Amino acid sequence: MNVLFIVVDDLRPELGCYGAEGVISPNFDRLANMGMLCNNAYAQYPVCNPSRSSFLSGLRPDESGIVSNSVPFRTKLPDTVSLPQLFRQNGYFTAGIGKIFHLGQDPDGKPALFKDPLSWDYFYDALREGTKLGRKGEGRNLTDGRLAWCQWLAAEGDDEDQPDGLNTKVALEILEEHHERPFFLAFGLHKPHDPFIAPKKYFDLYPEGSTVLAEVPDDRSDQVKYAIPNGKDFADFTDKERREFKRAYHACVSFADAQLGKIFATMDRLKLWENTMVILIGDHGYHLGEHEWWNKVTVHEAGSRAPMIAWVPGAKGMGKPTNALIEFIDLYPTMIDYAGLKALHQLAGESLRPVLDNPKLPGKEAAYSQVVRGNKVGRSVRTKRWRYTEWGPDGDLGIELYDHDVDKDEYYNLSGNPERAAIRSELQELLAIGFPDTD
Q1: How confident is the model at residue 439 (pLDDT cuts 50, 70, 90)?
Q2: 437 pLDDT exceeds 80?
Q3: Fewer CB in 10 Å around end: N or C, the chain?
Q4: How many Å apart are CA 49 and CA 66, to the nearest integer?
Q5: Quick check: pTM over 0.85?
């Protein structure tokens, strides 16, 4: 069975198939209708490099030792056989197109491509390419330059004036040239990651002023100090900036969706759906105004929950959604299970084959996520109903407890409620199971 692994940078479940009204995502939605839409999939770290290093190694962040964007995969895991590397060792043609492993940095601080020659027969990323035309258009920085990344551009030109359009073109060539032998194609879309640049036609899908903002209740609990990285970053945001930010994010989602459409059309023509497993994820979640935050790096639901859609030929659950609790460390064992391969190191996750055959299964008892604030660590456990988070050793720096039956956006912290003492104690024990080597 071939593998097409699609990783979309900073994509949260902000898609039509996840019930996001007004978001235009027909190709994401098509895959969800064909395959299995996973409603409760969680990243183990809400930042690009730690998350990707985790699911590409099959290890939790504490096991990989990678908990920042500045530590390359091979620095900590020089001998670990990555997910694509295992397929390569077993005769598959492996190609990485776009962002799969996280990008490193050149000495001058500019992004550098992390190609990992152990994993790929072929690698290409057009991150630094695109045309001059694609860098022109209407847009602005939403913070007057204070946050360099916080900008949008309704660009001139078309898809192939942008890096993602060029990456898609190469991915199509790979499918044309290599589809007659087993392949593992990892296709990484950069958008909707900031800066929010996409051809103007995708901005035009979302009329100015039509964006609906997140509802933040006035009577919410006081925020635990470390829950949000820096609340001052967006303190000056007006509703105008908020609407522009969210509109630009949506435009980039629709731009990414259009690239998927080209991939899927080629798969239609080459009749690849019959023997190709397709797994699509966002690498972690993203806040669009929830908790007055406009970024990632939180273990709130908005930061740790991410989209996941799976198509597996022959799996009995195709065409049905699932509410099973899933962790991204389950991706490695799932893909090699269907390919009949054996891991060469101990994997932290488990195959999702039972869920892909029966979407009514509950999945895991718990999903674990973590994040670091300097030398302060936040560790979180999500069950079907609850999220429990401790900051610092034994929660010395703050504890959060949220009841998802009544508070899906996690605004009402129940950790100090004496009526919830028993569930708090139970979840504390469950958290310790997920982080056994921590104080």
Answers
A1: very low
A2: no
A3: C
A4: 8
A5: yes
